[in-house]
Amino acid sequence: MTSKIDTTCKIFYFQDYKSSPDPIFEISAECLQPSPVPIIIDNGSFQTRAGWACKGDELGAPRLLFKSVAARSRGAARSETQIGNDISNLEPVRWLLKSQFDRNVVVNFEIQELMFDYIFSHLGVVNEGSVEHPIVLTEAPCNPLHSRQMMSELLFECYRVPHVSYGIDGLYSLYYNNTLSDLTPLHTGIVLSSGYHCSHILPVINGRLDAANCKRVNVGGSQAASYLQRLLQLKYPGHLAAVTLSRMEELLHEHSYTATDYHQELEKWRSVEFYEQEVHRMQLPFSAKGLGGVVSVEERQERRTQQLRRLQEINARRREEKLQQDQERLDKLLTVQELLEDGYLEQFHKNLVQLNMDSAEELQSYINKLSLVVEQGRQRLLQASEMEQPMDEGDGVTEMDPDFSEENTETEKPVQPVFNMAEYHQLFVGTERLRVSEILFQPSLIGEDQMGMMETLQYVLARYTPEQQEALARNVFLTGGNLQYPGMKERIERELLAMRPFQSHFQVMMASRPAVDAWYGARDWALEHPPGGEGWISRQDYDEKGAHPPVPRRLVGNRRSLHVFVPSCKWAPC
């Protein structure tokens, strides 16, 4: 996806992607008959994906993909808010960006309502006062009850939707990949999901999510992008403004990778040959206006002429100022001398004391010297004005500088540039390519005082019996946009080999499309489970029971517990 201009040096240009506004689709008849088709919304903290629960290549894919951000100035009207792809470039308005998420939990429901308005209007849902389509919505594992309650209130009371189903994105992705590969239903396994703000370890026991042993690691793609930005800003302090978060996200997606053995890979980078072969030179945009080139004889002659003129003007101004000061002092001395001639002896002696002089003879001597200086200054000014006249008619360089001749100019060689502006505007991305993804395994690199993802996985496995550990390790599933680094699967396998007992078995499977498989899994689930059945909350249920049933706060809910094949059932999280 990047344009490479030199395969030996690996010089890449930043693409600086500009998003274009999403079109407003017309709703298809297939989405209305025989009953309204569910709308699938993968409400991700980095990107939102929305579409219809239909089969086929066109309607069966996400119709909308946009970043989960909104930009609105303080005091601006609601209609002036820009959502997602309406913001072509995020950097100029980054200080205005707002998200509905805090970490991976929805807390700002005003922004969430704007997101829903954007989705429904662009999908062509124009019903007045209500949305007649069921909604399948993803949410965070163990989503707080308050967040679920506010989301249900927004959907049922503001949009009057008939049915809502909530599910975990990582389990939807697992469900889709099982059906895609025609595998037998997975009853026991463990899901490693890493998104924009955090990562999760989700154990599935006998077809049900074990919510009590789900763990979260507060490291994701957002922390990786910020870490990479800090590294490059420290490395290139002259390009602070050019090292933006958008470009760092591009570096993460296009140029980063995960080392199978982190320390061994760092040792390889000590080799000059390895560095020259693997370093990526990212070319920043720059203007060639200031580049130095070959300076011709005429240009050198013109520059020298201009310098001489500026020096002459400066010297002339200094002479005029000096002459004016001397003339003022001479006038003052002559005034004192007139006091003596007029007979004002007392005033004359007072002025002599102020002038630090002892007698009239000393005053007369000083007047004679100063008169001579003033006269000489006037003559110099007159000569300088006469010499400036030929400078206006010609270049006058040979008259002012006798050493400058045509013979000297013919023998001089052109001046070659010694400063490479293009290379100055290059970012050499070396070990940073593997250091940013390493924070998943070593959060201490960014100052986070917590376990890495694999240490947390080991802690979760230790909470089960040896038989359950074996079953879980045999089905390790990787999903999420932050696990798409090359080499991630191999690194997980190596870490599992180190932590599991001798001769034990394990298997690691990567999602086919880690970033969007959650949406496809929710689509397939909605196609197989029509609204009104298990896993759906109806408007009648909401009107009767409220946003959630009154259950004890510490109860790990098993009311229609979350099954791996029904990942969006109603359950009371811990």
Automatic annotation (TrEMBL):
Keyword tags: Coiled coil, DNA damage, DNA recombination, DNA repair, Nucleus, Oxidation, Transcription, Transcription regulation
Entry GO terms, CC: nucleus
Localization (cell): Nucleus
Domain of life according to the entry: Eukaryota
Main localization (coarse): nucleus
Coiled coil: none
Gene3D superfamilies per record: 3.30.420.40, Actin, Chain A, domain 4
Record bears the keyword DNA repair: yes
InterPro entries the UniProt entry points to: Actin, Actin_CS, ATPase_NBD
GO biological process: DNA recombination; DNA repair; positive regulation of macromolecule metabolic process; positive regulation of nucleobase-containing compound metabolic process; regulation of chromosome organization; regulation of DNA metabolic process
SUBUNIT field: Polymerization of globular actin (G-actin) leads to a structural filament (F-actin) in the form of a two-stranded helix. Each actin can bind to 4 others.
Family (UniProt): Belongs to the actin family. ARP5 subfamily.
Name of protein: Actin-related protein 5
Species of origin: Salmo trutta
This protein's encoding gene: ACTR5
